[in-house]
Each structure stands twice: as structure tokens, then as C-alpha cells.
Amino acid sequence: MTTNPLLPLRDKITALDKQLLELLVQRRELSTEVVNTKIKANIPVRDLERERILIKTLIEKGKDYHLDEIFIKRLYQIIIEDSVRLQQRILQENLNHNTIKSANIAFLGPIGSYSHSATRRYAAHHFDQIIESSCSNFKDIFDQVENGSVDYGVLPIENTSSGSINEVYDLLQKTNLHIIGELSLPIDHCILANEEATLATIDTVYSHPQPFQQCTNFLANYPNWKIVYCDSTSSAMDTVAKRNQPNVAAIGNKDGGELYGLQVLEHNFANQKENITRFIILARKAVEVSDQIPAKTTILMKTGQQAGALVDALLILRNHDIVMTKLESRPIHGNPWEEMFYIDMQGNLETVKMQQALKELSSITLFLKVLGCYPSDSVF
Ligand SMILES: C=C(O[C@@H]1C=C(C(=O)O)C=C[C@H]1O)C(=O)O
After folding, report:
1. 321 and 347 share a domain?
2. DSSP symbols for 324-351
3. Dihedral sign (CA 49, 54, 58, 60)
4. What values do phi and psi take at 200, rounded to 5?
5. pLDDT surpassing 80 at residue 144
6. Which CATH number belongs to the domain containing residue 171 in this structure?
7. CB 3.0 to 4.6 Å from 107: which of 119, 139, 168, 336, for a disulfide?
8. For residue 334, what pLDDT is reported?
9. Structural domain of residue 178, as residue ranges?
10. Which of 29, 30, 31 to mutate to test the pocket of ligand 1 (most atoms within 8 A of CB)?
11. Does the residue 4 lie in any domain?
């Protein structure tokens, strides 16, 4: 019997990887001590200068061992990102007296959808355990959070290729839920098909309307493909897997495709190379955001119809040096030609300048509501 000559070396690598893991755990424990000290001394979580020097020193040290600069940089960015997110979680739990370690979360499902990936990623940074509740439409997610069946809802709000997700914006107009978090997820669309299929055998493609909108340039190359809208990318995968024929395919993500036993025929073909979807997290209770981390505030407002009404509102933000990161308008159903504006701003709701700006805004608008103040997702 021949033994695999790699075995002894692999055993050594496995042992080293275990040590690396243990070191990462020790580093996390130190990050926890760091944030507890920061809480007491009111020091911001982020120290970009410290991070810059740390990475620079490690790159220099790595050169002695011929370690690639980009490798070291990427590796430590991931490690530091984890440390920053851990510290943010501890700060937020401390501030909001939040001891919930297990959460019930609703998302557009079934499992394997992008919303499911976003839910898992958000949960990994915020809860020890989750109970997943997959919904067949966005309205159902709002309903489940509103009626208390679940604690949180995860919803896509905008995408770099297709823009705003109008249906979610419209549902936000009528809800009394609060935005308590956001998450940006890179989206790599794949053509997922059964074993025998090739791009040439496909004549019907299933997906949610969003991916179709995000991939119009690619789809223009296949004018013979019939397009079928589904409730979600994962329900599309489920349909394709059940049909088990070479002429059908779904557009969705690779991990989801694996769940449904589908192969990837093509990927990375969205209209924008950097195809990213931003998700919001909704809850019944608003959260407070620590002033030691970057925050965003989202408001909903209706201006009068006089000339310059929107300009006057935006000037208030400028006068208070508030950076607007997004402005969206949606028609008000039942009131033709009237618009509701959604504004995302950098900054914490509790700051004096934000409070002052909102006070001034409410005096010149017909309606104003804060949808939420939440930790900003961008770390790098
Ligand atoms: C751990 C700290 O907090 C943050 C995370 C860092 C890290 O993980 O190395 C470095 C600087 C801070 O942005 C710290 O302030 O030292």
C-alpha cells in the first residue's frame, strides 16, 4: 500500500493553521479589551493612522521574508476589518443594552438568494445565532417584522447597476419600522444550469426582475432567450433544478447554485463591473448609534410644490455641513405628481448639527420623518 507523500507536510500545515487561528482569537480578545478601554475613555473605534503604520510596518517586515506586499495588505485589511466590526458590535450592544444573542430574521428567499447571503453576513457580525425566515415578497418581510413574527427584516435598497429598488422605497413610506443597519454585498451574477446544459442549449432564463435589469448588456447577446420573472433568484434556481432540462437556466449566485446542484456557465456579467447591492436592516425599535463610530441617518420628507422647495431643503443640509450620500424621490400613491424624498446623510442623529438641521427642515417641509440612524457599513 502506497502512502500519500504529502501527508506529513499537510499535517504540519494543518497544525500551523490551527496556531494561526488561535493567534487570531487572541488578537480578537485584545480588540475586546481595546474597545472596553475606548468606551471608558470615549475614544473613537477607528484610528486610521495606527492602522496605516501597522500595515506599513508589517509590509516592511514581510519584505525580509519575501512576502508579497499586496498579500500582506489584503490580509491585514481583513483582520483589521474584523476587529473594527467586533468593536462596533460591542459598543452598540453596550449602548443599546442589547443582550439578544439570537435573532429571528426575515429575508427574500428561499435560501440561496442574495438576500439570504446578506442576512448571513449581517448576522455573523451581530448575533451568535439566527433563526431564518424566508419570505416570498418584500411586503411579507415588512409584515413579519411589523407583526412581531420576526425581530429583523433584511431588504435590498439599491444596486450599482440597476439603481434604487422602488418597491422597497415605496414600502418604507407606509411603515413604522426603523432602519437599524445597512450592509453592502458584492453581487456576482452567474448563469446557473443543469449538468447537460451549455450557453447554446439554453432558451429560457429564470430570475428575479432585479438581476435582469442589472445584466441587460449581457442578455442583449442572447436575444432568443425567453425571460421568466420569479419571486427570487433562489426560487428561480429551484425551478431550474426541478425542470432538470438543458434548455433552462437561472441567474443567481454561485453558492445558491451549489445548494440546488446547478453548474456555473458564465459569471461576472452585470452592466457595472463593480456590481454591489446595499441592503437595509429593519426593526420595530430604533437604535442609538455610538458617537465613537461613523453613522448614517435616513429621512423621508415631502416638500411643498413651490419653486425651489427642494433646493431650500438641501441648502439647510449644506449650511450645517451635512454630507448627503443619497437622494431618491418616489411618487406618493393616491396624490398624482406629488413626490416623497428619501435622504441618506452622513452623521449621527444625536449630534447638535443634525438636530438643528432637522428642526429647520421640519419648519419648511409638509412632512418629515426619521427612518433611522444606524452604523455606516463601509470599513474599507
Ligand atoms: C485595535 C484597535 O482598533 C482599531 C483596529 C485596529 C486593529 O485591529 O489593529 C487598529 C486601529 C483601530 O482602527 C486600536 O485602536 O488599536
Report:
1. yes
2. EEEEEEEEETTEEEEEEEEEEEES-TTS
3. positive
4. -75, -25
5. yes
6. 3.40.190.10
7. 119
8. 84
9. 102-184+276-281
10. 31
11. no
DSSP state of 164: E
At 196, which helix (H) or strand (E)?
none
For residue 32, being part of any structural domain is answered with no
The grid cell for 263 is 453548474
Name the binding residues for substrate: 10, 27, 38, 47, 51, 83, 87
- Domain termination residue (choose one: 267, 302, 321): 267
Spell out the SS3 assignment of 265-330.
EEECCCCCCCCEEEEEEEECCCCCCCCCCCEEEEEEEECCCCCCHHHHHHHHHHHCCCCEEEEEEE
Find out whether 364 and 313 touch, Cβ atoms under 8 Å: yes
- Dihedral Cα 124, 129, 134, 138, nearest 10 deg: -60
61 pocket-lining for ligand 1 (C-beta < 6 Å) = no
259 touches ligand 1 (CB under 6 Å): no
Grid cell digits, residue 75? 490580509
Residue 1 has pLDDT above 80, yes or no: no
pLDDT at res. 217: 96
The CA distance from 132 to 256, in Å, is 15
The total number of structural domains in the chain stands at 4
- The pLDDT tens digits of the residues spanning 355-374 come to 999 999 999 999 999 999 99
Whole-angstrom Cα distance, residue 41 to residue 53? 22
CATH for 351: 3.30.70.260
Residues 97 and 150: their CA atoms lie apart, in Å, by: 19
Q: What pLDDT, on a 0 to 100 scale, did the predictor assign at position 306?
A: 87
Ligand 1 centroid, distance to 48 Cα (angstroms):
8
Q: How far lies 234's CA from each of 92, 245, 249, 343, in Å?
A: 33, 17, 12, 31
Same domain, yes or no, for 367 and 328?
Answer: yes
Q: Does residue 168 lie within any of the structural domains?
A: yes
State the closest ligand 1 atom to the C-alpha of 46, by its place in the atom list counted from 1: 13
Classify residue 205: in a domain, yes or no.
Answer: yes
For 2-30, what is the mean pLDDT? Answer: 97
Give yes or no for residue 214 CB within 6 A of ligand 1. Answer: no
Q: How many CB atoms lie within 10 A of CB 306?
A: 7
What is the value of pTM for the model shown? Answer: 0.92
What is the C-alpha to C-alpha distance for residues 218 and 207, in angstroms, rounded to an integer?
14
Query: Which among 138, 129, 151 has a CA at the least distance from the CA of 109?
Result: 138
The amino acid sitting at 170 is: D
ipTM (interface pTM): 0.98
